[in-house]
Amino acid sequence: MIRASRLGWLGLLCALSACGERVDGMTVTLGLEHRATAQGVQAAGGERSFTRADGQVLTLTRGYVTLGSVELKPCEEALGWRLLKVLSPIGTAHAHSVGSPLRLGTPHVSGLDRPDGSVLALGTVRPPPGRYCRARLTFEPADADAEGLPGADSGVDMLEHTLWLEGTRVPAGGGEPQPFRLVTSNIATVDVVLDGLTLSEDEPAAERTFALAWDTWLATVDLESPGAAASALDTVARSVAMSSVAP
Questions:
Q1: Within 13 Å, how many C-alpha atoms sit on residue 28's CB side?
Q2: Helix 79-87 vs helix 2-16: angle between axes, to the nearest 10 degrees?
Q3: 215 with 41: CB under 8 angstroms?
């Protein structure tokens, strides 16, 4: 009786897994945009201006950030589905390496010279079928192979840098604009919740775009502190959200 039950369970799993049939062709196309989340901000050309809660008026004249990688994270699964994946070749390749089907490892430098809402194409990953609940974005220094490095005549050297922000601030009481520059090679990682990302034979392709809220990057950063650049990078990572714009 026990043997029959086991055979029945294995038969069910075999049926669900199509007895070892592999499903190929799953794709997730990824993009990145930047935008403002508050009212009263101004975006003209490559400049972005906003007023902080403390009354300071900040203008970003140049801004670049390097997104090093994006990795999809599968949802936690019940025991039955984990057993199914043991018996089926579908979704067994979950290596977390440069060549992982879950990871997009080409670095991209995103600049504020791109208009708000304009999506930077990051590329396509080819994960196995399944449900994916989170994406892990890692901001890290750009290497020579990074996409979108500023030109030599730009005055910005993003090689080996993660974040580069230049601009001015006007004190809350008014006065002359005071210049600032924040540059760091730190690394920052953030997990973003994916809404309903499921890949299957019926739905083999999906698109997702991440948005960076530039008006929050310096909202609370003490620009005069020694760790201002590192704090700004952490805020950049925390500003990531999902966008409804297609990549």
A1: 27
A2: 80
A3: yes
For the chain, the structural domain boundaries read 24-79+94-243
Q: Is the pLDDT of residue 152 over 70?
A: yes
pTM, rounded to two decimals:
0.81
Radius of gyration for the alpha carbons in the chain, expressed in angstroms and rounded? 22
- Three-state DSSP at 198 gives strand
For the cut 70, the answer to whether the pLDDT of residue 16 exceeds it is no
Buried b / exposed e along 54-93 (16+ C-beta atoms within 10 A): eebebbbbbbbbbbbbbbbbbeeeeeebeebbeebebbee
Burial class (CB in 10 A: 0-12, 13-18, 19+), 246: exposed
Dihedral over Cα of 117, 236, 65, 106: its sign: negative
Positive or negative CA dihedral for 196, 199, 200, 201? positive
